[in-house]
């Protein structure tokens, strides 16, 4: 797909050359000196088969993130020497994702069809077995073009098999056709970072597994809490009182089931320590539900979230708590060795 020879606009004299990065590959385009960002978007739709509405351009340094509808007021000559990254999926990629969703929905419809009666075997909990295969995520999928997709697969499998998540999904009879990861670059602005998305009341759930620099993964319990939030959007779209009551109920159910099964402590987890401005809050501007990191918005009035949950710990508090946990583990290990055990 990439070509350093350039993609010229036919019928014009080429005066400006731009290098566009897309999925790790480079595309070189040439335009007249009076061309605008809207001209670039239209040309990329024709050459790369990426609809204009799916395009986002990350220009560094400023103006930053640009998205549809693109303005005719920004000349390409003003950004020609800057780093430009194209974010967006081709028509073929969108069709492939829709096909996967349709396949998963077909499997779900088949599961809900008539089931022949069978004589249960001894010592087998058929209801539990039915719940585990029905009320779950029917398919998990990482983003194959990001580094280490196998690690993302393992992370998603861990969420799917989490005893607390399983118990809550079975209780509320939640079946989600597809659980996948989110590309941080496509859901990051100067104001916020989206942690999770729920499409069409539980058709697809996307989670932001990776750190912004793609060099690690976020804290498992933070992502699991985000998943609880997105599961609540299977029932309630708006962030109203009913939504927050269900969200907190799911969080309590997940924590309780994890405690009963001897869940791992925070000290055993792979922890991402956020910047001080990275506080977990909610943003209600996306139909279907979206959990955002990096805003200072508290839960809506009348919600069941308490003040402690609405106001997360600062970076200093997080680091102090982590240091206390390390000191506690060191003392326990020394005491254990001192007793000869």
What does this structure look like?
The chain has helices at 37-48, 91-111, 126-134, 149-161, 163-172, 220-232, 241-260, 307-310, 315-338; strands spanning 3-8, 16-22, 25-31, 56-60, 64-67, 83-87, 140-141, 178-181, 193-199, 204-207, 280-282, 290-293. It has 341 residues and is an alpha/beta fold. The chain has a six-stranded mixed sheet, with no helix packed on it. Helix 5 (163-172) crosses helix 7 and helix 6 (220-232) packs across helix 7 (241-260).
Which short descriptors sum up this protein?
341 residues; alpha/beta; Ubiquitin-like (UB roll); 2 domains; 6-stranded mixed β-sheet; 9 helices; 12 strands; globular; WLM_dom; proteasome binding; WLM domain-containing protein; Ubiquitin-like_domsf
Helix/strand-derived class? alpha/beta
Oligomer: single chain
Detail the poorly predicted runs: 1-5, 260-288, 293-315
Q: What global shape is seen?
A: globular
Sheet with the most strands?
Answer: 6 strands, mixed
Strand content: 15-25%
- In total, the number of strands is 12
Helix tally equals 9
Average of per-residue pLDDT values: 75
SSE pattern, N- to C-terminal: EEEHEEEHHEHHEEEHHEEHH
**How much helix is in the residues?**
25-40%
The domain count comes to 2
Please state how the strands of the largest beta sheet are arranged side by side. Answer: 1-3-2-6-4-5
Distance between the terminal alpha carbons, to the nearest Å?
Answer: 62 Å
- Integer-rounded radius of gyration: 24 Å
Region (Disordered): 296-341
Domain WLM: 128-328
Pfam families: WLM (PF08325)
GO molecular function: proteasome binding
């Amino acid at each position: 797909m990439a070509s350093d020879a350039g993609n010229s606009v036919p019928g014009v004299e080429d005066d400006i050359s731009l290098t566009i990065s897309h999925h790790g590959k480079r595309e070189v385009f040439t335009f007249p000196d009076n061309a605008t960002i809207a001209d670039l978007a239209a040309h990329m739709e024709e050459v790369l088969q990426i609809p204009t509405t799916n395009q986002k351009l990350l220009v560094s340094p400023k103006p930053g993130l640009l998205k549809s509808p693109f303005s005719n007021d920004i000349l390409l000559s003003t950004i020609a020497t800057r780093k430009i990254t194209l974010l967006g999926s081709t028509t073929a990629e969108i069709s492939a994702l829709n096909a996967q969703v349709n396949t998963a929905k077909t499997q779900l419809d088949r599961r809900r069809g008539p089931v022949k009666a069978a004589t249960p075997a001894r010592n087998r909990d058929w209801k539990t077995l039915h719940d585990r295969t029905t009320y779950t995520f029917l398919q998990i999928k990482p983003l194959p073009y990001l580094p280490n997709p196998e690690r993302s697969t393992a992370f998603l499998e861990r969420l799917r098999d989490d005893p607390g998540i399983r118990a809550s999904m079975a209780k509320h009879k939640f079946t989600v056709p597809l659980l996948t990861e989110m590309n941080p670059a496509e859901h990051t602005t100067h104001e916020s970072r989206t942690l999770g998305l729920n499409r069409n009341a539980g058709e697809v759930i996307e989670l932001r597994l990776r750190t912004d620099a793609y060099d690690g993964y976020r804290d498992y319990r933070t992502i699991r809490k985000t998943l609880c939030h997105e599961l609540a959007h299977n029932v309630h779209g708006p962030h109203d009182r009913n939504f927050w009551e269900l969200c907190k109920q799911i969080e309590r159910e997940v924590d309780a089931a994890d405690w009963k099964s001897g869940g791992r402590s925070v000290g055993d987890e792979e922890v991402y320590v956020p910047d001080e401005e990275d506080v977990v809050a909610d943003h209600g501007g996306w139909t279907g539900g979206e959990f955002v990191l990096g805003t200072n918005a508290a839960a809506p009035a009348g919600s069941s979230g308490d003040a402690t949950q609405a106001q997360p710990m600062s970076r200093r508090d997080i680091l102090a708590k982590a240091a206390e946990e390390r000191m506690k583990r060191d003392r326990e290990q020394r005491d254990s060795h001192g007793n000869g055990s």
